[in-house]
């Protein structure tokens, strides 16, 4: 089982109506992106993290590890936004020169970078809230109810599963090669990598054929039908969702919030 799925299945919020979680997650992302406010982004980040970890009873260590994945790319991105080519020294907080090109950071560029940084983290926390509290096939069930094209939903489910199957296969091949000193030198490692890619391609093709044959043997006719759980709509949760979104909008338009 995929590690993210493991976390979703052990979450205490797993049995909450997935449609409500989906609406809450997507609505909060839309509010976060639309309002473009640092205060809102920080509130959303803290709120989603609190609900996912403390309400869902997920290990904090796992959540931090997952949040650190996009953090590296975010830092690299915001640095390029905060530091620009400076045509004049006016308004620069600091500057430095590289090959006779002056680079510097202004107050406006710093605020823009901060907005992007916290907005992106907040959006990621919203997606993690959904994926870490809702098994993937519950999400696919929600998409079906929202009339998303059936082909797209089925491909999404198959691709999601197959990606991690391939990663697991690649990891096993890598371990096998490493145990035989396949990466002891650069030349040998390069050769082993080529063999790994070749073996992975052949394995992927064989697995896809096996999966298709298994589906056909179970009367596959173009539709993948799964048993769906029936959930009761919680008006309390819907009310809380509305209150949270309204609160975020009020915070964004408050004159006391500078950013």
From TrEMBL:
GO cellular component: ATP-binding cassette (ABC) transporter complex
Chief location: membrane
Stretches that traverse the bilayer: 22-54, 66-86, 92-110, 117-137, 157-176, 235-253
UniProt GO BP: cobalt ion transport
Subcellular location field: Cell membrane
UniProtKB keywords: Cell membrane, Membrane, Transmembrane, Transmembrane helix
Membrane topology per record: Multi-pass membrane protein
Superkingdom of origin organism: Bacteria
Annotated NCBIfam families: ECF_T_CbiQ
This protein's name: Cobalt ECF transporter T component CbiQ
């Amino acid at each position: 089982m995929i590690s993210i799925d493991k976390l979703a299945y052990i979450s205490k919020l797993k049995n909450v109506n997935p449609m409500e979680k989906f609406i809450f997650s997507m609505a909060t992302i839309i509010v976060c992106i639309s309002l473009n406010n640092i205060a809102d982004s920080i509130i959303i980040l803290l709120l989603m993290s609190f609900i996912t970890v403390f309400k869902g009873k997920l290990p904090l260590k796992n959540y931090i590890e997952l949040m650190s994945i996009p953090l590296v790319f975010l830092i690299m991105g915001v640095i390029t936004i905060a530091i620009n080519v400076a045509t004049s020294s006016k308004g620069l907080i600091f500057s430095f020169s590289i090959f006779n090109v002056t680079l510097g950071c202004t107050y406006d560029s710093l605020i823009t970078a901060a907005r992007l940084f916290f907005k992106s983290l907040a959006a990621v926390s919203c997606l993690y809230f959904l994926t870490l509290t809702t098994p993937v096939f519950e999400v696919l069930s929600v998409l079906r109810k929202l009339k998303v094209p059936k082909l797209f939903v089925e491909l999404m489910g198959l691709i999601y599963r197959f990606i991690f199957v391939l990663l697991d296969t690649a990891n096993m091949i890598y371990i096998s090669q490493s145990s035989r000193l396949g990466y002891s030198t650069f030349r040998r490692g390069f050769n082993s990598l080529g063999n790994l890619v070749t073996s992975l391609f052949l394995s992927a093709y064989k697995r896809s054929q096996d999966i298709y044959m298994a589906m056909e043997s179970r009367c596959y006719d173009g539709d993948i039908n799964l048993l769906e759980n029936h959930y009761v709509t919680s008006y309390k949760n819907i009310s809380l969702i509305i209150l949270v979104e309204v609160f975020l909008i009020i915070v964004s338009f408050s004159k006391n919030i500078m950013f």
